[in-house]
Specification:
The structure holds 2 protein chains of 2 kinds.
Chain A (H helix, E strand, L loop, with lengths): L2 E12 L38 H13 L7 E2 L1 E5 L9 E5 L8 E6 L5 E13 L3 E3 L8 E3 L6 E7 L6 H18 L11 E11 L9 E6 L2 H20 L7 E6 L4 E7 L9 E2 L6 E2 L2 H10 L4 H12 L3 H7 L3 H14 L2 H18 L11 H12 L5 H12 L6 H8 L7 H13 L2 H9 L2 H18 L6 H11 L3
Parallel strand pairs in A: 11-12
Antiparallel strand pairs in A: 1-9, 1-10, 2-15, 3-4, 3-14, 5-6, 6-9, 7-8, 10-11, 12-13
Helix pairs in contact in A: 1-4, 2-3, 5-6, 6-8, 7-8, 7-9, 9-10, 12-14, 12-15, 14-15
Chain B lengths: L5 H10 L4 H19 L2 E4 L1 H16 L10 E5 L26 H9 L2 E6 L33 H8 L5 E6 L5 H7 L2 E4 L19 E6 L2 H11 L29 E5 L9 H16 L3 E5 L7 H16 L18 H12 L2 H14 L5 H21 L5 E5 L15 H5 L6 H6 L3 E9 L2 E9 L4 H14 L10
Helix pairs in contact in B: 2-3, 5-6, 7-15, 9-11, 9-12
The chains are: A alpha+beta, B alpha/beta.
């Protein structure tokens, strides 16, 4: 049987506000446990929440970016459950009246086609703290630094049909929130967390299959492998005549396996009700209009501009505009390097490959954009051969901070393109190779190309690798009577 | 000294008749001698009080005194006091010392008032008799076998017994007005949002409001001058100018429009109580008021709506008492569930547990619409009743309670009968309007309270009407025998 995969996502985005959503505590990551938890965050008796206006600005900006309805009135509710890292015994969140209503995100897939993913809504809520179960001799440690960090939870419609589509959407969303500046995008620190709802159904069937939710996927790679894993698991069960249990599952990316966290029956009755400590928040058109006026350039607009301004292909423009870090890097490189197409090639080729291999991002790229720009410049003006460029790049990647021109000088990588100088070199090398010349000249034109290599080796050696191979080839051909 | 009002003590202090240290010592001595009979204090802060009195005397000598500088008073033990244990009369918080002041506490501190200690109450303000206290019941100075009312029974008894000139209190469904009536003193529940709830341990957030317990309306006006005002730490506090509540006390009442709701004077009202209250109203007519019958048609729904909304909010508000971060924790929990269940089973009293259960039930899946949503609709109808009524009258008058103080233990086995004690006061909290109870007669030598209900933010008019009544009568000067 042919199966159709149906995927919907819930994404928790930590907002890059300075302070928490309901208190004045700092949201900075990585501080000593419980040093960023005030009486309000600790839910001390009598303390009260006060909503952070910046969180509403960020949520509204997100809503504008996905062309969504911004609800003029939104209401915080209490979601009641007990857990040690949830100090109040309820999470303050939005349910019936979220800040962001329905919207959509258009995603370009690898084959160039466009896919629209509808957003059901996005709501504001507070993050919980962290429970630490190791190193406490059988007890658990509670760190409330994260408790109260503002989040928007984005809920999509079940519009994606493959892992590829889901990941492309996730990357697009990542690009969107980082371009907006509302999230630092650091998935390894949990700034962006993906929960994936997956079901399968026979091709052509309209009714949705029973879904499972896989929680807290903190890299695109894990997300992709988790979806493949879960789809396979569900199809195996169904093809063996079994049924899917609606449940929450936890995926272990290092082992590529998943296990059940809790089934629907075990789910809490959260007893939601409007939080009486927080009045409904009403925003007006002026609030929205002022944010609309301040919106930064978003990936789609950037892509269009890159195509026009830098003559990039649709494919390249889509990739270098996908998030603000890579887009900024590209523009800086192109500005210094001059040749935008070449800059894009280097960024999407060698540099991306190296960053991916080490799980790094453009934000903490070891090669500054200015240096890559200099490298591009020296390639395009023929100062560097491609092998010389690779050598310079290697030095830059390993933390060499010197100017590219200095490196070329120091490492003797400057390419010689002067025709007169190279003619002399060719003459002196050919003088020692009469047999090979004869062999070449008597060979079929079809075999000559191969024999040409026999001259280039000694020529490059004689020029200490600095001869411009293109120029050398031309001279050589002339001398050999081609 | 202990028979003087706050206004009189303030005059004496400013004239140097005695010092704050002498005055404070006098009240501390009285508490030591008398309170073994009433149990109106949970904690007496002798050292802090004398230190603050000394500081107040010094402040006065520098010429920086406010009307409250050096005046002794007491806080209901629901207001957090920095460095002084705050129990809410619960085993759960028996040893809880907050590292912060409630906004109300801070305001009295800034004014230079001298806090004598923390008064007894029903646990977490749930009750109408101050019998639900982990620290034992408070008795009524008008009769040792009588309850003082509740939940602010400690504050009411302490003021009536002249152990403190005044005390703070809170009112969620009548917790200021009913004990004020039972103890023959003056109590004011301000408009919801007039006094900050920050640091006031929450029972039902949308109903709780801090207020005053004093012997006279003038003293309540002086207290409200300190307590009222917007607080950025409480999102539900209202940013509206605060008048000088003492400024208008002597305005004549000629033309004051008084409404008597027919639903409050039904056949079921004890005829003696009805007559006593009508006599008091006649006094207002003598002062120039016009009286007419009005209708508050949804009155009969108030108790039912209240006992859904208040427990629902309480069930979430009390979730933070989980034994994890502060407060009582059971011995040797064997796992997380055991920690939660035994901590809460052992730490809360039975009335608190009853209300958590009722509230959790009302919010649970399948019942939410029938209980919580319906109760909210009723609440809006009740609000509308008052809005309509205040179009044609300035003040609504009624009994504060169905009867004078009842005997200790007489209602403890019948929660519903206990809940009906608040039949005249509860609708006021649902509507959010301000109301007072003032001594206005006696039945069998026990004080009877007249309830004055005002329009939103019309506390000044209530205080004016109460003060004029107290200029014309001497019910407020009656003191318990002994």
């Amino acid at each position: 049987m042919q199966w159709e995969v149906v995927i919907g996502l819930e994404i928790h985005v930590q907002l890059a506000t300075q302070t928490k959503i309901f208190s004045g505590s700092s949201t900075a990551y990585g501080a000593e446990p419980n040093t960023q938890a005030s009486a309000v965050d600790l839910a001390m008796p009598g303390t009260l929440p006060v909503a952070n206006e910046q969180a509403f600005r960020y949520a509204t900006m997100f809503g504008l970016a996905i062309d969504a309805e911004i609800n003029r009135r939104s209401v915080f509710e209490r979601k009641n459950y007990f857990y040690p890292d949830l100090p109040k015994g309820y999470q303050t969140t939005q349910l019936a009246e979220p800040i962001v209503g329905p919207g959509h995100v258009d995603v370009q897939l690898a084959d160039g086609t466009e896919k629209r993913v509808r957003i059901h809504h996005a709501h504001l809520e507070e993050d919980a703290g962290k429970s630490l179960h190791e190193d406490y001799h059988g007890m658990s440690g509670i760190d409330l630094n994260r408790a109260g960090t503002p989040l928007i939870e984005i809920v999509t419609e079940p519009d994606m049909r493959s892992a590829e589509e889901a990941v492309a959407f996730a990357r697009k969303l990542h690009g969107l929130v980082t371009s907006l500046g509302i999230c630092d995008g650091d998935m390894s620190q949990g700034s962006l967390r993906f929960d994936v709802n997956i079901s399968v159904r026979p091709e052509g069937e309209e009714k949705l299959g029973t879904r499972t939710e896989t929680k807290n996927l903190n890299s695109f790679r894990f997300m992709e492998s988790a979806i493949h894993h879960e789809v396979e698991r569900q199809i195996d069960i169904l093809e063996d005549g079994g049924t899917i249990v609606q449940e929450t599952r936890l995926y272990n990316g290092d082992r590529n396996e998943s296990k059940s966290m809790r089934s629907k029956e075990e789910a809490n009755d959260y007893r939601y009700f409007p939080c009486p400590d927080l009045l409904p928040v009403v925003i007006d058109d002026a609030f929205i209009d002022s944010l609309r006026a301040q919106m930064p350039e978003l990936p789609d607009a950037k892509k269009t501009r890159f195509q026009a301004e830098y003559a990039l292909s649709d494919y390249d423009a889509n990739l270098v505009s996908s998030n603000s870090a890579i887009a900024d890097y590209f523009e800086q490189t192109a500005k210094v390097g001059g040749d935008a197409k070449l800059a894009a090639n280097w960024i999407l080729g060698e540099l991306s490959a190296r960053l991916n291999a080490e799980d790094r991002s453009f934000r903490n790229c070891p090669v500054p954009a200015e240096r890559l720009g200099q490298l591009v410049q020296r390639i395009s003006d023929n100062t560097l051969s491609s092998s010389g460029a690779k050598k310079v790049f290697e030095l830059l990647w390993n933390g060499e901070s010197a100017d590219v021109d200095e490196l070329i000088e120091r490492e003797g990588l400057k390419q010689v393109s002067d025709t007169g100088e190279l003619e002399k070199l060719v003459d002196s090398v050919l003088a020692d190779m009469p047999e090979q010349i004869e062999q070449y000249q008597s060979a079929d034109p079809g075999k000559r190309k191969k024999l040409m290599g026999g001259f280039m080796g000694p020529l490059m050696k004689a020029s200490k690798g600095q001869g411009n191979p293109k120029v050398l080839t031309e001279i050589l051909k002339k001398k050999l009577g081609d | 000294m202990h028979n003087k009002t706050v206004a009189e003590l303030a005059r004496d202090l400013s004239q140097g008749t005695y010092s704050s240290v002498e005055l404070t010592q006098h009240f501390l001595n009285r508490i030591k001698q008398e309170d073994t009979r009433y149990n109106s204090f949970i904690t007496v802060t002798e050292d802090d009080a004398l230190r603050d009195a000394k500081a107040a005397d010094e402040r006065r000598s520098r010429g920086e005194a406010t009307p409250w500088t050096g005046i002794p008073f007491a806080h209901k033990d629901i207001f957090c006091t920095n460095g002084v244990r705050t129990t809410c009369a619960s085993k759960m918080l028996e040893n809880f010392v907050p590292p912060y002041d409630a906004t109300v506490t801070a305001r009295f501190r800034d004014a230079g008032a001298v806090c004598l200690g923390k008064t007894n109450m029903d646990e977490f303000a749930m009750g109408s008799s101050t019998e639900n206290s982990h620290f034992g019941a408070t008795t009524n100075p008008w009769g040792e076998k009588l309850v003082p009312g509740g939940s602010s029974g400690g504050s009411a008894a302490a003021v009536a017994a002249r152990l403190t000139p005044a005390a703070t209190a809170t009112d969620t469904g009548g917790s200021i007005r009913q004990p004020a009536a039972f103890c023959g003193i003056t109590g004011l529940k301000p408009t919801y949002g007039r006094v900050s709830r920050y640091g006031m341990i929450a029972f039902a957030s949308s109903l709780d409001q801090g207020g005053t317990m004093s012997r006279t309306a003038e003293d309540s006006a002086m207290m409200l001058n300190v307590m009222a005002g917007f607080d950025p730490k409480d999102s539900t506090s209202v940013d509206q100018p605060v008048p000088d509540y003492t400024a208008n006390l002597n305005a004549p009442l000629k033309g004051l429009r008084v409404g008597l709701p027919k639903e409050y004077f039904s056949d079921q009202l004890d005829p003696v109580m009805a007559q006593t209250v009508r006599d008091a109203v006649r006094e207002y007519e003598a002062l120039g008021a016009t009286v007419k019958e009005i209708s508050l048609p949804n009155t009969h729904l108030a108790i039912a709506a209240y006992y859904v909304i208040a427990p629902a909010e309480a069930s979430a508000n009390l979730s933070r008492f989980d034994g994890v971060r502060y407060g009582y924790r059971c011995d040797n929990p064997k796992d997380l569930m055991d920690l939660y269940t035994r901590t809460r089973a052992e730490g809360f009293g039975s009335e608190v547990k009853r209300r958590i259960l009722v509230g959790s039930y009302a919010l649970s899946a399948g019942f939410f619409d029938a209980y919580y949503l319906k109760a909210q609709k009723v609440r809006r109808l009740i609000q509308q009743d008052f809005v309509e009524a205040f179009k044609s009258v300035d003040i609504i008058m009624s009994p504060s309670t169905p009867s004078p103080a009842f005997a200790l233990g007489s209602n403890t086995d019948d929660p519903v009968k206990m809940y009906l004690e608040d039949i005249f006061t509860i609708a006021i909290n649902l509507a959010g309007v301000p109301a007072m109870s003032i001594p206005a007669g006696q039945i069998k030598s026990l004080p009877v309270g007249l309830q004055l209900i005002g329009n939103y933010f019309d506390e000044a008019r209530l205080l004016n009407a109460a003060h004029q009544f107290q200029q014309a009568t001497d019910w407020h000067q009656q003191s318990p025998a002994g």
